Amino acid sequence: METNISEVVMGLDTVWVLLCAALVFFMEAGFAALEAGFIRAKNSLNIIMKVFMDCTVGMLGYWAIGFAIMYGLSQGGLFGTSGFFLEGNLKHLDLGIPVYAYWIFQAAFAIAVATIVSGAVAERMKFGPYIIFSFIATAIIYPISGHWIWSSDGWLANLGMIDFAGSAAVHAVGGWASLAAVMVLGPRKGKYRKDGSVNVLPAHNLPLAALGAFILWFGWFGFNPGSTLSGLDLNIARIAVTTNLAAAAGGTMATIFTMWKYGKPDASMVINGSLAGLVAITSGTAFVSPTSAVIIGAIAGILVVVAVEFFDKIKADDPVGAIAVHGACGSFGVIAVGLFAEDRGLFFSGDPSLLLIQAFGVAVVSLWAFATTFLTFTILKKVIGIRVSEEEELNGMDVSEHGIASYCSLETEAMMQEY
Amino acid sequence: METNISEVVMGLDTVWVLLCAALVFFMEAGFAALEAGFIRAKNSLNIIMKVFMDCTVGMLGYWAIGFAIMYGLSQGGLFGTSGFFLEGNLKHLDLGIPVYAYWIFQAAFAIAVATIVSGAVAERMKFGPYIIFSFIATAIIYPISGHWIWSSDGWLANLGMIDFAGSAAVHAVGGWASLAAVMVLGPRKGKYRKDGSVNVLPAHNLPLAALGAFILWFGWFGFNPGSTLSGLDLNIARIAVTTNLAAAAGGTMATIFTMWKYGKPDASMVINGSLAGLVAITSGTAFVSPTSAVIIGAIAGILVVVAVEFFDKIKADDPVGAIAVHGACGSFGVIAVGLFAEDRGLFFSGDPSLLLIQAFGVAVVSLWAFATTFLTFTILKKVIGIRVSEEEELNGMDVSEHGIASYCSLETEAMMQEY
Amino acid sequence: METNISEVVMGLDTVWVLLCAALVFFMEAGFAALEAGFIRAKNSLNIIMKVFMDCTVGMLGYWAIGFAIMYGLSQGGLFGTSGFFLEGNLKHLDLGIPVYAYWIFQAAFAIAVATIVSGAVAERMKFGPYIIFSFIATAIIYPISGHWIWSSDGWLANLGMIDFAGSAAVHAVGGWASLAAVMVLGPRKGKYRKDGSVNVLPAHNLPLAALGAFILWFGWFGFNPGSTLSGLDLNIARIAVTTNLAAAAGGTMATIFTMWKYGKPDASMVINGSLAGLVAITSGTAFVSPTSAVIIGAIAGILVVVAVEFFDKIKADDPVGAIAVHGACGSFGVIAVGLFAEDRGLFFSGDPSLLLIQAFGVAVVSLWAFATTFLTFTILKKVIGIRVSEEEELNGMDVSEHGIASYCSLETEAMMQEY
Questions:
Q1: Is the pLDDT of residue A301 over 60?
Q2: Rounded to 5 degrees, what are φ and ψ at A209?
Q3: Residue C190: strand, helix, or coil
Q4: Among A residues 113-142, those touching chain C with beta carbons less than 8 Å apart
Q5: Cross-chain residue pair A100–B238, CB shorter than 8 Å
Q6: Exposure of C94 by Cβ count < 10 A (0-12 exposed, 13-18 middle, 19+ buried)?
Q7: Which residues of C touch B28 (CB under 8 A)?
């Protein structure tokens, strides 16, 4: 029997989405390596295990509850109510690919939101409450604001808000949730001195962090282009270009800016500069020109440096810069669509209406993420406690939470030898 | 000239299989990182080089001999005899893709089997005999049992055994071969004390091990869905979902189970829990529901912990848990098909016949892998010796086998400086 | 509306090229890890940041200038002049995919050339001049010789030179540029003793280097097969096989050769042996048989060992072996096409004409890369200086160039603790 052309189209689109989903999932490895590398060795296993919990418990949360709330039949544009455990009515999605393919792509996005927060709360948050938060984030917090933006019936979508691959839905939500989390949690011991000065707590493995950044950049080849959900949509080529150019520009500007400001190119800022470019372009990647992408990325590359300093000044201790990268640059990216979109952006159409919608939309979801995370962390703090003891923080969470250190050197090995 | 639709189908399927083959090949990086991270620093380069030998010598073995034995013209369902060096008659394969595409996908599977064993024999097996074993495993041991299961004329295939992506053909074979290998090789010096207690030999780099686990999970996006050999088979979407949910459930249950049992979530058990879920779902991934996948993964996540303890109790010293993950959970996964398969599994059809076939099939191939590996190792032991000397084991195999240590710290560097 | 079959073809080809581009881009992570692992810890962050600069500044250089020079409207086969900033006339490319898809794939190749050089100049070249070189390499040096070979109007292309995926255009160019660079730059302090003997400066993290090699090998699944620019071209299957077999043979022969020569398998030589096989097959991967690929890879696996020793003898200090791997084995690979190509190679046709063209072509582009890099480095040396001070070299470039060390151990962390 001859294959039908529509079967081929569906096959191609499914192949595309599954391979892109794999790339997005692999970003979890990038986050884990980046975050572990940026923090102290004594807490590095713990942060990796938290990211692992997003992939395990968080993924189950999105399967059991989150997907239904995000993409189920809409209740007035506020949240969905069908598709729990991937069962029940999901026909309204009207997909060109199997719903399972759609789910795995979406699930990889959902767990990224929790993972963004994991970096900000590193080095002092207890493991158990983190697992609970990861579940709540993927099952409820992210899906609800995600419904507003990405469900065809979502109220922000109906307002006309554009967020192609999630500078708002994923990054701003993750970034501002991170701010709420660290405000409830408080800074790491020893980060801010009594005289108000900042004590830089050392990154323990910058090659690992850089490897994480490369993996994240690699994963973005799936994150943004895959969001077309179709390989037939040739705009995937433009998306790949704007995504990469924004990353390139972000890293370049962070290099120049820190050379000028500090006298030396700051490695972690350069890395975060490229990530900031990626985060910022994510919203408009399908709608802006390569040149606009370079400008958006370049601005993000400076903004992230300024934002990191700002959040340090207000003592929002974020060991990996998650609030600056995802919160500040994600929000900027959503707004940038209102400026740079080729048809409706202010700079091209002269019409500020999209800009206003974008600004309003990202403000709403940021507030949502901040408020619900603040509430969740506050309740967790009261009920079971969210912070390890001072002694555990001093000795490191790898030993206190998992009973083992991340590393055992050749020298230590030799000493431990019994025979 | 207009392109024919059947050409497009073949192109799509070839693209799919090649990209999945790349993902499966990349799992070698995952194995290398996982195994190196789980063992001591002084042997970490050696284990990585062994994995590298699987990719080089092992791949040549599968090219020269293995593929012909596995997929050549069948001799009574026992083994194949055409296609050595990728030449000769392979028309009976009746593939929808070029035979070269099929080969590279299969080759990536073959080397994984040898690599599974490399982890179990880490920290004491000599390099030379390992290379020989790697060649024999990819050229003979794996291809023969693989022929039984996956050749269309294989006798187990004809019995009705189902092993979609290889819980039996790859994982049970690799896992039970590992058991045979460590029984001939003996435990590492100092692992078991005279009073019978276990001395935990330290993992030297858990972030590296975790990175390896992420890479393996990422690679499974190719391992299982790619096994359809066609991107037009929309079941790839279900396969991606069941694969991921089983991994998520395995990691989640290992977390809960070790928290309950040891008071703390054991990092290496959690990692192995997710891998156990992946291994267990591999056989039935195309035939079970997402909910069944969660149950299969959850059981594997507990089974792996119990199995690790069991093999330690019988002094089968396996530094990375390969026997538990691949042997125990692979076998369980094959049997699980007989329980959970949507059409013919016991729980859905009430008919135990598939279950009996599955149990019989996995028992046969496990026995085959165990016996042939036991024999190979015994002969190697007699003829050239398989174990490094006590002194080499004490000093570490990186230095004795390769003349160099894996790591050189900032401090050591400074001391070595001549100028 | 029914989708047209030509739309499906274009979609499939675009999906293929974008995913392969992602794999090629990810090779930057491989280079970074390989190079960092092979050098001393004190300079490891610096080398990674240089690779990061290729991805950022270098990519912008290829966007602004390089692509136009390489693929713009040809001026007499010497260089192109349209398409700056991805704008203007590019219709002559006559692509079956969007020009943006073509660009991102090509951009990932361009930055690889600069990155090859980064390894050779590691541990003593200043950061600022490196950024300038990276820009010049991706904007001018590589695009011009690339135009000769790969533009349909290029003069070497018109001569009949074959360089399928770039043993000449990428690897020989990068490799011989590396030789020029190290000749101007001079060897690292302490590498060559006054008595003429070689002082091996220690690799600081061989697991990291090996992980880099695995990533590079994985990336080659995109580098070579993706160069068809079409998933409908079923030759992608053969390309995947010849690529992998050459890598396998290169690693195998380097193992055997160093075991025979040094008594032990040299880990870094084995790794470089596989990379040498990959580099050497890249030119002919689409035109040779699997058996020929094994032979080409095997020769490269020996050649790389001999070449590393040769360049050490002439005091061309190359910490990672880039000249040997990319220069020597890349050149060999181009010539090998003239020997092993199934239709026109000397061994099959008896006609030496292709061989002569190949030898001439690779000589020309190698000379071009050597001369222009020599000139660029000489000017940079005169104008701004290219080498860090002796003191900076002694103390390590991570601290002098970025103000931070790559690593902070558990012990150092504990000492730094203020609370």
A1: yes
A2: -60, -40
A3: coil
A4: none
A5: yes
A6: exposed
A7: 214
